[in-house]
Design goal:
Shape: globular
Oligomer: single chain
Helix content: 40-55%
Structural class: alpha/beta
Distance between the termini: 30 Å
Order of helices and strands: EHEEEHEHEHEHHEEHHEEHEHEHE
Largest sheet: 4 strands, parallel
Strand content: 25-35%
Radius of gyration: 18 Å
CATH class of the largest domain: Alpha Beta
Number of helices: 11
Length: about 280
Amino acid sequence: MVRITADSTCDLGVYGAERDIRIMPLTVILGEDSFRDGVTITPQDIFAYVEKTGTLPKTSAPSIGDYEDFFGKFVGEGDTVIHFDISAKSSSSYEHAAAAAKKFGKKVFVVDTKALSSGQGLLVMKAYDLLQQGMRPEEVVKTVNGLRPKVNTSFIPDRLDYLYKGGRCSRMAMYGANLLKIHPLIEMDDGQLVPGKKYRGSMEKCITAYIRDLAEKYPKYDKTRCFITHSTADASLVEVAKQQVKALFNFDDILETVAGSVITGHCGRNTLGVLFIAE
């Protein structure tokens, strides 16, 4: 059989489990303690650590040896593996997985999604759909690689504290944004995060405007599904996003996921994004 796997940054949660997507956890480091993303640590642990120490957690990718063991288990059972990683510009996870895959020849394919979180997850889910339709592994990989530039991976942070601590914005920008209630769009461009339009006002107001802008920018899109992914956001904010997506888009499924510890550790609480594949 063909086995789909991904590293833990895909943030698929129950949707991945339902499809038997096997996950390779990244490591989250809090001080001198190491944890496995999605296994032995939760986003709440991240919030507590940052509040206590004032510093962000560190993360590390699985080693080449870790990936050889991971892939070897499935290949040993007779499976062909298609593995999906967070953007190579954001982590060495892809580099290590690709190096490990060489040991198994054409039994293991590794995809640099050039995305993160459920942007990565969208390609994982698309690959699953294509396999269900009878597509061969080589064709699946070619198809999802072609879709990478069409994946909208974007989000709006509530505050810039975590981005500042991670070196992604200046202290002045953080203070100014928090004081003036400025919420910048952060989006993936060719595999790396870049700032976009700046929204101003309450998070509810900004999320509403952000989704309206997405609808104008992407009039044609894959209607199969979208993800509303957030880092433990307020329920009221998630509901605002759901209603706006329902009003402006026509997706078959609107799926809600909560970002894992790796993604949460970079963006902070109450960050929210609407992610989908454009045409």
